[in-house]
Amino acid sequence: MNSFRLTLLLSLLLSLLSCGAVSFAEDRVYLQHAAESRTPEVYVGTINDYTGETLSMTTLSGRQIEIPAAKVASVESDWSAEMRKAQALAAEKKFAEAEIAFQEAYRAESRGWVKRMLIAETARCRRNIGRNDAAGDAFLALVASDPYTPYLDAMPLAWKTGEPDVNLHRSATAWLGQSDSPYAQLMGASFLLSAAERNQAIATLERLQSSAPAELALLAEMQLWRTEPPSQDADKLVARRKQIERLPPAAQSGPRLLLGDALARANQPEQAAIEYLRIPILDNVDRPLAAEALLRAGKQLEQLGRPAQAKRLYREIIKDYPAAGAIGREASARMEKAGGAAP
After folding, report:
1. Which residue positions does the secretion signal occupy (predicted)?
2. What global pTM score does this model have?
């Protein structure tokens, strides 16, 4: 090929690229926002893998880089049509349909790091429709692929008293017996704290508190808060807030519910309500937990003599959390007792 034709072809290719006629998929990695920066740092290229330890990628210039997972705020990619459909269903709170769609997306996906993301989404959907046993199994499949998963918030844990149903009890008992998996044991002990196996669950949590990886050890300690008698020690409550902030933001909601409970018992209803309200504001993933937090916040507002504000929260539960079950029924009862519809 002579130099004139080569130059012509190169010019044509550059022209097509600049006009958008030829495009290549790009992954974008957004880092945690630095305090001294107004805009987040972004890397563009191809993600090779993303685990709970590192994200590896090839930049547009061809450079191979590794980013600590703790510094990653979010990622964007060329998601498949199946994945976009599943995400849309989840955004519409159609979690049963979204679960099926995420599984379809998983089967169509070839990238390992995206497949793990889809497993996490499946676990979240199952939790939101009350299938914590199936959610736990999905989460264990996730950590089997990546023992240091960045999707810690996809792990189902119990944060309030309530005996597990038959299926969940069976699964929790099996998880508790998996001595090679601290994730499984943490989930099992969490749900069995309200069952006949309570003493075994406490012993497991105490062991995990001293032997599990840092974030799991911290969650085990926080589960043990559920077993302690009420305390009005102000210093302890401040210390617990600091402990919660050591967790990834997406995993803080459950412990914040317990902190709200402690503040309520310490006769600090306003602070308790604030803590409860952080959950639905900051966490749009765990819907049952968010509905519970709104209900508890409403009760604290009633105690403060603010019935109109309480009714607004009860109405939000009824309107936005139609699958809330017993929580929704209690919100409706409190609405009627307080005088009907919220202003």
Report:
1. 1-25
2. 0.87
